[in-house]
Amino acid sequence: MILTIKYFGQIAEITQKDEESLTFSGNLISELLDLLHSKYSGLKLKEFQVAQNQELVTLDTELSGAEIALLPPFAGG
Amino acid sequence: METKKPKNIFKYGAISSEFIGNSIYKHQTKTSIGAHNIFLGQVRADDIDRKIVAAIEYTAYEDMANQKFHEIREAAFEKFDLTCMHIYHSLGTVKAGEICLFVFVSSPRRKVVFEALEYIVEAIKADVPVFGKEIFEDETHQWKKNT
């Protein structure tokens, strides 16, 4: 499936981009993260949550969404 | 009537005192209200290892953030007897001393607005994907994290 991956804040500093499209054949969020960690080694040092179609998900969640976002700690307010 | 669709609560730059004052003024026609409560988040000139925060540059996952604001709003109306509620958050650069968050709740009675405002502000801090880059006076930066 084709995924749109969005990066924010300090995560976007590591990936050097705000967004990219990836063709991915895995089933789980954790598998996608394995791929992203191998692509961007700096991610390992960073704290982030993952959202799928704008809802937070866990590592063992099945990939179903077209839009995945890597969200660093929130700082609103 | 309160709108049920997620709306855009972001404003570019600082939230001015004129805007806040005007919001209060607009409620004078809503005479069932007996109590307002307002939270203003202000950018603090934190001193971190002898470097002073000059500004915060805010970014957000805007679609998700507006959806979360909408959920917080719906939950607050469900939980508390509110007449109306307004939230505005800054995007872009807000200098130390300027306002970056404006939450305004109104109800017939005072006790409700004290509880509701705290509930809403804590939910915003915990659940809304807004990111803050703290820019120091020497133009280096670090990333803010809510605690």
Describe the protein in words.
The complex is a heterodimer of chains A (77) and B (147). The longest helix of chain A has 11 residues. By secondary structure, chain A is of the alpha+beta class. Chain A is 23% helix and 30% strand. Chain A contains 2 helices and 5 strands, in the order βαβαβββ. Chain A has one domain: Ubiquitin-like (UB roll). With 147 residues, chain B is α+β, with helices and mostly antiparallel strands. Chain B has one domain: Molybdopterin biosynthesis MoaE subunit (Aldehyde Oxidoreductase, domain 3), CATH 3.90.1170.40. Chain B contains 3 helices and 8 strands; from the N terminus they run βαβββαββαββ. Classes of the chains: A alpha+beta (77), B alpha+beta (147). Chains A and B meet through loops of A and strand 4, helix 2, helix 3 and strand 7 of B.
Give a short summary of the structure.
With 77 residues, chain A is of the alpha+beta class.
Defining key terms:
heterodimer, A: Ubiquitin-like (UB roll), 5-stranded mixed beta sheet, 5 strands, B: 147 residues, alpha+beta, Aldehyde Oxidoreductase, domain 3, 8-stranded mixed beta sheet, 8 strands, 37% strand, ThiS/MoaD-like (chain A), MoaD/ThiS family protein (chain A), Beta-grasp_dom_sf (chain A), Mopterin_synth/thiamin_S_b (chain A), molybdopterin synthase activity (chain B)
What is the CATH T-level topology of chain B?
Aldehyde Oxidoreductase, domain 3
| CATH arch. level architecture of chain B | Alpha-Beta Complex
Strand content range of chain A: 25-35%
CATH class of chain B: Alpha Beta
In DSSP terms (H or I, runs of 4 or more residues), the helix count of chain A works out at: 2
SSE pattern of chain A: EHEHEEE
In total, the number of strands of chain B is: 8
Quickly count the helices of chain B: 3
Shape type of chain A: globular
Report the order of strands and helices of chain B.
EHEEEHEEHEE
